[in-house]
Write a structure and sequence with these properties.
heterodimer, A: 5-stranded antiparallel sheet, 18 helices, B: mainly alpha, 71% helix, GPI transamidase component PIG-T (chain A), transmembrane (chain A), transmembrane helix (chain A), membrane (chain A)
Chain lengths: 674, 459
Amino acid sequence: MALLRRPLLVLILIVTYQFLQLWIAVGSVIEEGQKQEEFYEELLLKPLPDRKVLTHFHFQSSAPPTSNGRHHHLFPKAISQLVQKFRVKEMELSFTQGRWNYESWGGFDSIPSSNAKPPGVELWAVFDVPQHLIDALWKNLTHTLSGLFCASINFLESSTAYSAPEWSFPPASGNLRYGTLPREAVCTENLTPWLKLLPCRDKAGISMLLDRPSIYRGFYHSQRLHLISTGSGSEGMDPGIILEQTLTVVLQPNSQRASLDRASEKHIQPSWSLSSIFGKQVSGKCVLAETSNVYLLLDRGLVAELKQLHEENEKSAEKVLTSENFRTNPCFELSAKPDRIFIEESSLLSKNSSVLYKFKVEKYSEFEPFDLGLTWKIPVVWLCRQAPLHASRFLMGSGNERGAIAISLKSTQSSESFMGANSDDERCELRVDVFQVVPWYVKVYFHSLQVFVDQQPKAVSDIIEKIHVSPSKDKVSPGVMELVLKLPCSVSSAALTIEFDKGFLHIDEYPPDANQGFDIPSAIVSFPNFHASMVFLENDSLNKSPLLSKFQEKSHVMSYTEVLLVPLTTPDFSMPYNVITITCTVFALYFGSLLNALRRRVAEEERFLKDKAAKKTGRLPLLLSKLSAKLRGRHSEPPHSPPGPASSSFINSKLVLKVILVAGVAACWQHYFL
Amino acid sequence: MEKLKKKIGSFSFWNWVIASIIFRLILIYFPKNLNLSSRPEVSTPLTSFRRLAEGYWLKQSSMSPYAGSMYHGSPLLLSLLGPLTVKRIEGQPNHLLYSLVSVIADVVSAMLIRATGRNLQFAYLRTLESLDLVKQIEGSELRSSGDVAALIYLCNPFTIVACVGLSTSPIENMAVILCLYGACSRLIPLAAFGWVIATHMSLYPAILIIPVIFLLGCGPDAPPRKLFLQRHQQKGVLNESKLPHGFSWGPIIHFAFWALVWSVYVLVLCGISLKQFGGLWEMFKSTYGFILTVEDLSPNIGVLWYFFAEVFEFFRNFFLIVFHVNILFMILPLAIRLHHRPCYLAFVYVAICSMLKSYPSVGDSALYLGLLGWFVNELSDMQFSLFLFCGYVGVSLLSPVMHNLWIWRGTGNANFYFATAMVYACLQIVLVVEGVSAMLNHDRKLRRLLTGKLQDVKS
């Protein structure tokens, strides 16, 4: 029976599937006028010069503005509720582990400038509400995101953790709030909720590749969520939302041992395939996705290098690279046949242009999984495009009292070509925006800002065109510094230094590992004159791909500096009781002894004592008078009549009685009341 | 012969003054002022030069100087001294002008101390004369207390360090001394001015109003009035002219009027300089509020920073009240017991404040040590003076070492530094307590001498 039933089941399934597809197709035809929710999945692969591979997953879901309630087919409901509730206009949340290596992985393209993020968590959001409501919304937003992504984003709630940059942060607007948690550890518990926002999760389509062990083995991974709500046209309509989820991972492919054996091929780039770096293959697209593409990007430097290598052999190098018969390519070999090849529109500045291979995943199925492999045949060495200046930041000084932060900008060699192009102007200037947030316990002296250009100290007003500072308030708000620098194009290095005092905190304000130090979040250095964009020829077909249209957008070239670790002095955490008791003792000593000195009237005391001695001649008063006399440092006349032994024993017995009474009362108290 | 001796004495006084000024100038010409300006002993959040410069910078870039929690001083200081923080002269040390202002403030303070000391000594001699006790006291040599006090103030390493370390305490001290000088020499507007400015700059000198009232009401320090009455009764003749004046309200009303005028003046000036920013309320919040709530927990030579860094948060307000009330509690007993010696009362108040204030610095200690010089004759029988001297030397040597061990080397911990602060507080307590009892003993001694003499006369 079971054997009989199974084909039937399969048949039914197939029929249902076909029907469903038909229904979807019909539905899309019917609702042609009204825009549908859409989902795109894309993957970009790019070999990096230092034997690593960049993989960049890009998922985009969009919900058009609707008026018919809160029903979503594909779009994650949690996100749309969040946007509606907190009136978020634009928001970006990133979880990053590792540091983007600007020197070898490039800093000019749109991938590093929009996807290279500072370590830990970075969150910024623009709200669509009046100024005075923003802070409350921000607090609620951080709590919501914290629950949504299983991360301690709620620490950004306190006013010491976030800031409101005025103009230096790219989506410049007064309604922006920006906060980072440099020490947040990122792990699968953050990735899983992020994947849950995808319609196919990691069960089908490109996201199947997201094998946790191989991702977290990478040198850098940054998981980002960016959403824009496209303003609702009329009232009563929910805003349309475009949700962009990207995951950027830099992985080191396991190079084949065989090629390493040969010394001559040591410099050859490692060959890799999707299955070798992720341990998985793509078996078809996510059914719900509009498009599902994989791209392989060879950047300008690589292409130029390949051409050069080629020109020794053949004339038409470009043809070879882009020709359909890529299998005959003498430089490398692809295991799958690209569906399209795009060439970047060669810009005015350089003749070289990047090459993009497009692979459509929908052709592949479970039985014929997609597994792109790249095998290098000859050793290639190239450089990625760098940002005009390489920014790095470090601490100066020693000890735990004070120090200085230095931001150094070094000109990258490759940028000379841009300079050359710009140098037609008489006063060629390079504009650099610096945005720096410092926590309040790093008390920055803004008047100590110094600028060095080519190791020469310069007047601050010559270089800094615009400065906006909001100084830190103890336990209330962090310090924010926004600068616009105008550097001459011929600059080879520039440095900013600013001094600070280290604050001292209350013992409750130190984290559990206080001696590890405190983090100063990354500074953002952006170059507004330079735009990272890649414009490909044959624009018409690109409209369909959000990733490629993202490439074409003009975004500022931007880089994050290192996170600084500032060790702060710690008090002794075990001391509160001791300090309280000792200090209070000293105060009591002061109060008591001064009052005693003021109260004392020597002559009267002596008279009083004499009277007392005359009246009652006990041993105790005698002792007391002697003691007090000694304390005063002067002799007192002994009372005239010697004390009788009987009275002394009487007093002693009285004393003993008293002591016993007090002890008894204490015992009763202890017994009955406590 | 006497005159010659005096001349030599005064000559050597001026020598010392010039030597101390030259020593300051030499220190100023050291590179970076020997880093004294960032020492915790010298620059507290209230007196720090770097914070002053930061406040001036903020003001120049059209922000409120109290934005952020860097500057907590007076806006007037910012307008007067602020420009000096940025002015540079080629080939000279960076903050030469500002240092010169500090040196001048120190010298002026010393001169005022000297004048007041002479005034006090004159009054002292006069009272002795009126009590016919000159001969008994003459046996123990009388020193010119004004010169001694001025020299103590000028040559005290604490003063020198505070002056070279570019803190604002020389100017605050000058305001306090100006107030006392004015009250002693009955220049009522000057006294009121000094009092208002000193209070405006550091709040604590506000309690000096009590000694100033006594000074204006009954004149400078004298033995208790009872002694005079006793003496005259014994003599049988009540010579009114030889009696010290009773309490007179005239000068006090005069003083109150001038104090009101000056405070309105100061407030108006502050209001004008802060007009485009937060106004006066912001100023009060970040100067007096900052002093009273002990927000900054960076180490200094006091004990409150560590206490408030360690104390449980829910007790904080309680202890804030306790510690500030400790100063206030002592005002009344001291005023009752020492009302006949208003200058000494002022010294005790200054000493107590510099011990219990939230951000003490060595500049405050320098002030009360200088004022102590006024009473060299009266306090000659003070106990533990050698012990106190050694203690001060020891603490001022050990405290930087402990700070270095904790902050710079990381081999010590905060308790080491706190221990020196504790010892320093104890030393100050001993000084105050012993000083007060020595002064009371001195009065007793005078009385004993008087009664002994009377008995001699009778017998």
